[in-house]
Each structure stands twice: as C-alpha cells, then as structure tokens.
Batch of 3 targets.
Target 1
Amino acid sequence: MLGTKQFLMIEEISAEGAYLDGKELGDVFLPLDEKPEYLEEGDNVEVFIYSDNQGHPCATTKAPLAQVGEFALLRVKQINKVGAFMDLGIAKDVLAPYNEQKPKMREGYSYLVKLYLDNASKRLCASSNLNKFVNKTPANYEKNQEVDLIVAAKTDLGYKVVINETHFGMVFFNTVFKRMYIGQRMKGYVKQVREGDKIDVLLEKPGIEKISGLGEQILAKLEENNGFLPLGDKSDPQQIKQAFSTSKANFKKAIGGLFKQGKIDIEATSISLRK
C-alpha cells in the first residue's frame, strides 16, 4: 500500500537500482543509492512506498516521519500554485493541497497534519483540517482512563489535544504543570466526558495513585541530591512545577505521606531524608 513501510522482495537489480515486487502495485523502483550493498535478488528489504512526480510507485529505505493514516508535525518547505510541500524526511515531499489547509500554511512553519491517500490522484497527501478525521465515533471513555495525546492547538482555555487519534479533548491551563507544544505526544487521563462528547483531560494521574507515584519521584530525587531538596511546604509553586511538573497541592500531599511513613523530615522550604 502506498504511504506505508513494507518488506518487499528484490526481483531485479540494474545499474540504476532495484525493482521490487510491489504485488498489486506492480514493480516498485528503489534507487541504487538507497539499496543496501549486501542485498541481492530474491532478498527482502524494508522500504517506504510513495509515488514519484509521474505517479509511479517508488521506494526508499529512509524512515519517513509518518505513514498514511498517522498524525505528524511537518514543516512546510515550499508553497506553489497547488499547495504546500512538507518535509516528510525522505527525498519526496508530501503535498498539503490548499483545500486541506486549516489554517492556511506558511513557508518555514510546522503544522500538525494527518497523512491520507487522495482518491483522485492515488498519491500520499497531508491535511491540517483535522476535523475531517476526529470525533467521528461516540466518545466512550471511562473516568481516569489512560489515553494517548497529541497536542493539536493552543486556545484561550488551554490546549486542544487529539485523544487516541480519534477524538478532540481539552487540557485546561489550570491543570498544566509541564511544557506543552504543538505535535507533542504524551500520556493523559480522562477527567470527564461532558454533553456533546466534550472531553476534559488531565496530564497527571488522578487520586492516590498519582500521589504515590509522585512520592517515589521525590524519594529518587532526594537520593540523587545527598538526601536534601530545597523545596518544602512554603516553597514557591513555580519552583515545584519546574522540579516535578506538578502542582503545589499534590506536592504537599506527597511529602505529607512520606512524612507519615517516617521517610522524610519537612521544613518550610526544604525536605530531607530521615536518617
């Protein structure tokens, strides 16, 4: 299938390159400088398949930044009358047609896109009109369910994220305790699914499990720093955020739990391992 990585058999090797058995695609050409020297006719080689400027199937052994059906943050290298050409990490750029650009793209900028096969040209293309690809099924998520996130946009309320590559969600600013940027991938947790399948997402594991995990991080950091950290009950929330990517409230709960377990001593602006 075009736009995917596959293992194909080398049928013939010529002075220009190798011809691979592309099955329903027919012969797929792999340039000579892309063919590993040790491979011979009859061997299998892993390649990424794309179309050249004439629409013929070609192959590369270079790893693309994304395959068909996947999301990726790609940079616009050039814009012409047909659309924006984006760097896919291989010799051939991928086209984002004008009618698939939302917002309109600018040269040198990067955009979160999804790769798809154009029905008319049968070529691999990119679209930043993500509304075409998400929220097409009911949002059947459980509270506190762990999900995969891709940061899609920054809004007035927080960060719009793609959940499990199928739904949009929102991470509100007041729950963000780490740096976030467009295209970033991370784990998250469903806080709630509101009316209209609007999904609120947290970056931190809710409840006692989160506090327990944070406590382990704090103990590990204390061990790394000779049993002492200049963070305590009265420390600045920004310092805590920078050190542990969490809120001051969660930090205080975690160190309180460690104190009750007899593992640390707490001062106003510091904690230390109990000897």
Target 2
Amino acid sequence: MPKSEFYQTVPEVTGEQGARKQSFYDSYSKQKLDPSDPAIFRNSLLDFVRSNKLVADALIAGNVQMLGFSEVRKSFGERWPSIKDKILLLAETVIKKHTGPADAFLMVNEEQIVILFGGGDKEKATRSSEKIAREINEKLSGVSGIKEGLVTCRALVLELDPKTPIEALTTPEGLSQTVDAAQKKEEDVERQHFEALRSELHVSYWPMANIRKKLISAYSASVILPIWKASGEEQTHTGVFNCELDCYMLTQAGEALMRVGRQRRALLIVPVHFDTLATKPLRQQFIAACQLLPRLSSKRILLEIVDLAEGVPQGRLHTLLSFVGPFFAGFVARQPLSFRTPERFVGLKMMAVAADGSHVGTPARDDVERMQGFAKACGKARMRSIFYGASTFEAATAARRCNYDYLQGAAVAPAVADPGRVYLLK
C-alpha cells in the first residue's frame, strides 16, 4: 500500500503543536495510550502515527504485538478481581523498561495488551515482546498460585485498506476491532491455503532402527509440502497453517495405526509444532483431533514437539504437555545437535530426544563431537537418543559409533506408505 494514500486521511500537524519539540521524558510518559479519555487517546495516537509513520511502516511490517493474560486470570480464579490491578501495573512497568519513546502500548482489556513498536522490523518487535512476556512470567513465578509461562505474546500483521479512515484507529474499540479483524483475516487466509494444498499432501513413514536390539521398532511420520501456490512461499504468521497440518498428520497417523493390524505393532512418532500446543485456540483444535484417535494411540503413538525453543521454562512445558498427555504413550523433543541440557525434560514423560542430522554427509571432526555430546547428554538423563536424516553410510556409521539409540534416514531404510510392524534386522 503506498504510504501517501493512507496519509491523505491523517490531519497535518500545524501551529504550535508541530513546532514544539517534545523531550524524551514527554514522549516516554505518552507511551501508554489511556482509553479513559477519548479525546486524549485520539490525540496521542494521531501524534504517534505522525511521528513514527506507524500505519504505513510498522503495522504492515508486523510490529504490532499482543500480550495475553487469559491464562494468568484463569490461574488466579476468584482472586483475580482483587489482584488484577497489581499484575497489570507490573506488566506496564516491564513494557516501559523494554520500549522506547518511539513505541506505545494500550491495555485493551483485562486480558490483552497491544504494543505498537514504532521502529525496527517484525523480528525485532517479536524479540522485544518475548523478552517482556518472559520477564513478567519470571516476576509472577514467585506469586502464590502462578505458574511459569502463562503470559503469551503474538505478532500481528495488519494490512490496512487505504480507504480506512483514521478514526478507525483513534478509539480503543476501533483499534481493538482493527487488530482482531486483521488477526482473523490472516487466520482465514492460512486455513484457505491449507485447504488448497490438502489434496496434494502425502504422509510417509520412516522406519527407525533400534541399534542395540537390531530391530525396526518405530516409525516416524513426515509430510512433504508442495509449493505454496497462493503466495509463492511457505510461511505462517498466526500458526493456523501449522496447526491444520499437525491435526491432519495426527488423523492420518491414527488411521495408519489401525491398518497395521495387531501383530507386534511398532511405535509411531508424530510431530507437532510447539506453537500449536502453546496457543490456546490452536491447542483446543489439536485436542479435538486427539479425541478422535483410537484408544491404541495411548500405547503406541509418541508425540514429537518440534520448534521447541531453548528458553521455554520446565513448568510451562509440564503444563502444556499435561493437556495432551492422556492421548499418547510419551513425548519426543526435537533439539539441535548442540543440545546439552536434558534436565529441562525431567518429569515430563519425555521418552527420547531427537536431532536432525540430514546436513551431515561425510561427518567432519566437529560433526562427530557434536553428535557424541548430544548422545552422551541424553544417556546421562536416561533418555533415548534419535538421529534423524542419516542420508549416507558414513553418517549412519558415525551415529552408531556415537551410541545413538535409534537411527533413521535413507541410509537406514527408505520411507514407506504405511507404518509396519516390528522387524528383526539381520
């Protein structure tokens, strides 16, 4: 959208208002957009739009971040009315610590705070909002009744119509509705993209060799996505596309498990994105898919969490995994080869930790050292180690010598259309 088209609707700053230069502290004190006085709120937001070029640059760049407190409210229960002001004041203090005079924030309601980052790009805004959410969580962790990781943060990408009047953004209700509408629009687009690709999706299953027992005793599910036809690139802003994909793969895995028959069924590992579990609406959709699984899934399917960041607190993981724990035999965590902190997963029903080694062709010395360190860390924590993507004989041999428990990849066995039973390797 050309900047000039939207700015035609923004009144120019004239007279003393335009000539007066605000000090740093004047700007800093105006970070919080106060919705109690409509006139002050409107003028503050208009000043923000003029000074930061927010509408044309920041909004479309994804510099709008939403902090959610719904889980915090649920955790306090009946005590929430008496303590909410203190928690929101704490949040306000932390936000001001990590934002500058070019930024602003608005408390939409008791459960949502919108932060408008006036400069930088989406990645920088996301990092800042994650720092804010993490620090609020840390400060709340000492309060009775509060668990770790309850404050959520999400990036929003708003594409405003050039004909949108500026009044649509100058009231708390208008700004909130604009944010909600943009979020819903983005989610609908991702659902439509997934539905367009559904007929082309194909789930395959990779046999996994248990090195010590010389068995094919597990299969890992994977899917190859076709070209993202609508936009030319595969991406997801809201997590809806990944959630739809996770639910699709889970459904396919449940059906495949029933086709195997009852003769020595192998374990089946099914991936899920961490955001699917961490975001409440997406988690509810995934749980609905879990409820359709056959009862056998609680004994034969392991759920593998991918995109699991290192900084997720153990308490947060425990809470999230407890929602879906009854449907699965256990969990697998996908981690990089640099993984050395198995204590994160103690008490989480974590059966194994997996590393993607598809980039390892002929292993160099550094590759072997990382592989050894990964397997050794898993062994100390009494967790099984999995080496994915062994594409060459050399990589598979190196993983075996590094004492990995399971190997998977083209050098071990090709992918199959359906997971099979347990096979003895000769």
Target 3
Amino acid sequence: MKHWEERAKGWVFLSHSSNDYENVKIVRDYLEENGFSALMFYLRCLEKDKKHLRKELIESEISERNIFVLCDSYDARKSDWVKWEKELVEKDKSKIFVTIDMENLKSEKCTELSKLDKLMKRSTLYFIYDYDDYKEYKNTTAKRKNIPNLSDKTKIALNETKNKGAVLVFLSQKILDQKWFWSEKESALEENTLIIPILLDDVDINEFPAFKNLKRININSEITIEEQITLIINENDAKDN
C-alpha cells in the first residue's frame, strides 16, 4: 500500500515564523486530518555548516507543492524567510494561496480554519477522459499533481466533487464515438460542480453544445494548463462570492 502522503488530496507548504510554531501546528493538524500533506519546514541539519542549502531546498519543496498557506503574524512579517517565500509564490500563478491570520486564530479558531475548508474544496479535481487521450496527457501538470480520475466510480466521484473543485472534460475526435462518455457527461451536468472542457485536437466544440459556452482550456496557450485551471476556478469562486 502506498504511503498516505502519496495518496494525499493535496500538498501544502506552510510558511511561518518559528515563534508561531504551536499555533501553526493547529493549522497543520487540521489539514492532515482532512487528508492533506502539510509541511512545516524546519531541518536541524541546516542550522550549522549546511545553511547554504536551505534556500535551494525550500524553493524546490515549494515548487513541488500545489498549495501555499501563509501563516501571517507580527513575527512572520518580520521574517526575511517568510517574506522571500511569499514573494516566490506570488510569482507563480498556478499555486493555491491562502493566508491564515495567526492572531485571529487564537480567538476565532473556527473562522480562520474555515478558510482551509474552502481551500480543500477547490484543490480536488476530477476528470472524465478517454484512455488514449489520457495517455497523451499523462505527463502534464494534472498527472504530476495527482488529480484523481473518475474510472468506473463516476457517480460516487461526481457526488463527492460537488463544491469540491472541478471536473475536467477531455474532448477529442475519438471521444465522439464513446457511448460511455455521453452518459458520464450527463451525470456531470446533473451535479452542482464546475466543468472545465479541454480540447485535445481539432474537434469542433459545436459537437459538444452543452460545453460550448463554458470557459475552456487551450492546450496551445503560452499559459500552462495548471495556471489556466487555477484562473478559471478563481473566477468561479469570485462569481459565487
């Protein structure tokens, strides 16, 4: 069986001041209880003769995690490391970025943790695909970020996806003849979830009228697929609010 972190719903980097350690643990534990891998970065071995490795390690770890949680506090705002981590992530539009007010966490714990609830809902994505199409797509960001597929449990997955992210629908010439696709498409449309179409070839979007007016992914865009997905989800969140 895979280690639980390999099956995590998302990978979170917690940016924080060491002075907030005990309160940051509350945030970390809450995320882990909900199936997310959350990292509080501190390595004793980097405190002495290996300090020069710290920046490279942190940058590498942040790049591998799709969620960045800033644990904001008076001490965090004084920290050069936290400032650098925040600036690094702000340049990467593909990251899900959430700020937790550590001072407010002390008095209004539920209010601050509710921000994580919203984060966790939007960080899980499911997609419908034709297997051959998926094989062509498997080396993209979606694969690396461990986005689960629907397989033969479509109804269960779609029900779970309600208000929990998006359904990515891969559209291609091959999919037009797949009977199972049309039934899964109807299931997806029946659920209250965000659908994001991805055109993989020169298939005409008019062949899929239900998706015609939806914002879709352009695989030939200079913007990465992951960044496009994040932008669409952010716009949808803003509309709902």
